[in-house]
Amino acid sequence: MVQTIKVLVTGASGYLGQHFVQALIGGNGNYEIYGLYQSLHSFTEGISHGCSSEGESISLHKLDITNKLEVDEFMSTYGPFNICFHLAALSSPRLCHEAPEKAKEINVPTHLFEKLRETPLVALSTDQVYCGKQAPYENSARTGPVNAYAQSKVEMEDCLLKDGDRKRPVVCLRSSIILGPLSPFADSHSTFLHFCESRNGQTTTFFTDEIRSVIAVGDVLKILLYFVKEKVINSFEQGVYNMGGSQRVSRMDIAEAVAIFIGFPTDNFYPAEKGSIVQDKKIGFASPLDISMKSHELETLVGFRFGDLSQIVKAAFQ
């Protein structure tokens, strides 16, 4: 008899969360999917409740992961789970700067983590844990957060990885910017690629010194599905992995790649250096410039090479 895998996904209504739920539904597995979301009610309208495809079912729950009573009730009713993918976050650096305590409460949901003490967990971290002065960053590089968002993610990693009493493996994926097609169930989420597409014929300034190792959402999904399968077959090793694409690119590089693929001129695109305004009072918070990463450890683990910018753009607009 085929084992049913109970998969918990926090942040299921987010950009990556929606794509991941879709991948699980169509993943030829035998999954019982529980998706948690805080807002975006239209997300639930795009997914059929109950049996979504042969062998899979999905159950969506509006839940505040910082509310102990809500977490306790949910876990006692639906737990335990075979694996959890923690994708929920307050990911806006500006909002985290304006409300650092709220950022910590959301990004380090200690009570939820405690209730999942015996559940293998894969958590989404960020490349912003690096300070931006020693790129490209190796997987073993030390963190140096320069803003509240990055600090909260470092604290999340520490909370999950430095508690020796936990009875399950934990993996933290330090993700670069995730790019790809529009969200499959609710169109409120687009990526920087779609912003670039919208600037056809519009005068727009793009940074040339903000360097990232952008990664395709399709590659991230393959990585997440790898951990689902590893949990079923064996288990997986605890650790932290850089998760970035194979290319170091600037915002201008991305904009030009979109324009070339779609076929519109870039005469109205103008370069600018973010470093020259990073201390501007209008910004209000520090932002690392070059946080490109080397991700060969994760590529070796999952067994494939992550795509470059041209592949990412092609996948998004085809």
What does this molecule look like?
The chain has one domain (5-180, 214-245, 292-306): 3-Layer(aba) Sandwich (Rossmann fold), CATH 3.40.50.720. Helix content is 35%, strand content 19%. The strands form 4 sheets. The chain has an 8-stranded mixed beta sheet, sandwiched between helices. By secondary structure, the chain is α/β, with parallel strands linked by helices. The chain has helices at residues 15-25, 42-45, 68-78, 93-98, 100-107, 110-115, 148-161, 192-198, 217-233, 251-262, 296-302, 309-317, and strands spanning 5-10, 31-37, 50-53, 56-62, 83-86, 121-126, 170-175, 178-179, 204-207, 211-212, 215-216, 239-243, 249-250, 269-272. Residues 49-54 have low confidence and may be disordered. Helix 8 (192-198) packs across helix 10 and helix 10 (251-262) crosses helix 12. The protein is built from 12 helices and 14 strands.
Fourth CATH level, the homologous superfamily: NAD(P)-binding Rossmann-like Domain
Domain unit count: 1
pLDDT under 50 segments (min length 5)?
A: 49-54
What is the strand content? 15-25%
Structural class: alpha/beta
CATH architecture: 3-Layer(aba) Sandwich
Specify the number of helices.
12
Number of strands: 14
What topology does this entry show?
Layout: E1 5-10, H1 15-25, E2 31-37, H2 42-45, E3 50-53, E4 56-62, H3 68-78, E5 83-86, H4 93-98, H5 100-107, H6 110-115, E6 121-126, H7 148-161, E7 170-175, E8 178-179, H8 192-198, E9 204-207, E10 211-212, E11 215-216, H9 217-233, E12 239-243, E13 249-250, H10 251-262, E14 269-272, H11 296-302, H12 309-317
Parallel strand pairs: 1-2, 1-5, 2-4, 5-6, 6-7, 7-12, 8-11, 9-14
Antiparallel strand pairs: 3-4, 10-13
